[in-house]
Design a protein that fits this description.
InterPro entries: NAD/GMP_synthase (IPR022310), NAD_synthase (IPR003694), Rossmann-like_a/b/a_fold (IPR014729). This protein is mainly α. The protein is built from eleven helices and four strands. The structure holds nicotinic acid adenine dinucleotide (DND) and adenosine-5'-triphosphate.
């Protein structure tokens, strides 16, 4: 939805404070962000610069071999003045694929699509732990709503600043942060299938975002598809289910995680 100037400024201020608090609780001042050159990672990186300062933000560019638009990711890091590292994940992806295929036979197409996001997650955590930093998640509400994300891949991170903002709201935030159009206007694509998200999903983000914010979806088939994808993907955003043994837990359950026992 169009947030308008005042609401957008308030939202940005609240978001910055929230991220600051998260970092304080974690006890780190170093943000580590996977930079694809798309709007989500660009906006999260710009946000991290506002919260932590540019010297405390590390961008990680992780092409799978050649990445045609890697210059956009490099330009974003230059624009924000953040340090960045480039790590080609193709050798790791190919080695993992070969090992899995040797054991179980040809990897399914869906498994192949989800492997790079999981390798990126492993790289980001390795970089973050090495630098004493934390991984900032870059997912937005629109993609998460329909589960268009890889569990334990791009769903990972210490916290998710854009989790309740639709794609159009993320763009408004990017503009407020002063990001040039080329960093916020690229049509979202997974970079793996050669198709845009909208081609793969079969509906537009405009329709999805309108449905999320107003409950209105004019095409019943699109509404049914969105509802189906939403229901089928909720598992990606819930804590892992735990078997409750009924055995006593007597120590202080400070985080309240075992309270069903
Ligand atoms: N109910 C349930 N409870 C717990 N686990 C459940 C489950 N149902 C399936 N699973 C597990 O989850 C797996 C399926 O989930 P997952 O591995 O995430 O994969 P899946 O949902 O099949 O695919 C994710 C889609 O998102 C696309 N993607 C990923 C990353 C970024 C972007 C982007 O453009 O932004 C797009 C990707 O190309 C792919 O089409 C199953 O193989 C199964 O192991
Ligand atoms: N080539 C890459 N290099 C570095 N990080 C990447 C790369 N591709 C994806 N990522 C990370 O994974 C996240 C999800 O990537 P995806 O390609 O699915 O695009 P997206 O969800 O539309 O996000 P964005 O708008 O940032 O591209 C990105 O926001 C980024 O943090």
């Amino acid at each position: 939805m169009d947030l308008g100037k005042e609401r957008l400024s308030q939202l940005a201020a609240d978001l910055e404070k929230w991220c600051q608090d998260r970092m304080a609780v974690i006890g780190s001042d170093q943000a580590v962000i996977g930079i694809s050159g798309g709007k989500d990672s660009s906006v999260v990186a710009a946000l991290a610069v506002r919260v932590c300062g540019k010297d405390q933000v590390t961008g990680v560019l992780m092409p799978y071999g050649d990445q045609a638009d890697i210059d956009v990711a490099r330009a974003l890091c230059r624009h924000l003045g953040i340090r960045h590292h480039e790590i080609d994940i193709a050798p790791a992806g190919q080695a993992l694929t070969a090992a899995v295929e040797e054991a179980v036979g040809p990897m399914s197409r869906q498994a192949s699509l989800n492997l790079p996001p999981r390798v990126r997650m492993a790289v980001l955590y390795a970089v973050a732990q090495t630098l004493g930093g934390v991984v900032w998640n870059t997912s937005n509400l629109s993609e998460d709503w329909v589960g268009y994300a890889t569990i334990y891949g791009d769903t990972a991170g210490a916290f998710s600043p854009l989790a309740t903002l639709t794609t159009d709201e993320v763009i408004q935030l990017g503009r407020l942060f002063g990001l040039p159009d080329r960093f916020v206007e690229k049509p979202p694509a997974d970079g793996l299938t050669g198709k845009t998200d909208e081609d793969v999903l079969g509906f537009s983000y405009a329709d999805l975002n309108r449905y999320i914010r107003t409950g209105v979806c004019e095409d019943p088939a699109v509404k049914a598809q969105i509802d189906h994808l939403h229901r089928a993907s909720r598992f990606k955003f819930k804590p892992i289910e735990m078997f409750h043994s009924g055995l006593p837990i007597v120590a202080d359950d400070i985080a309240g995680i075992y309270k069903n026992d």
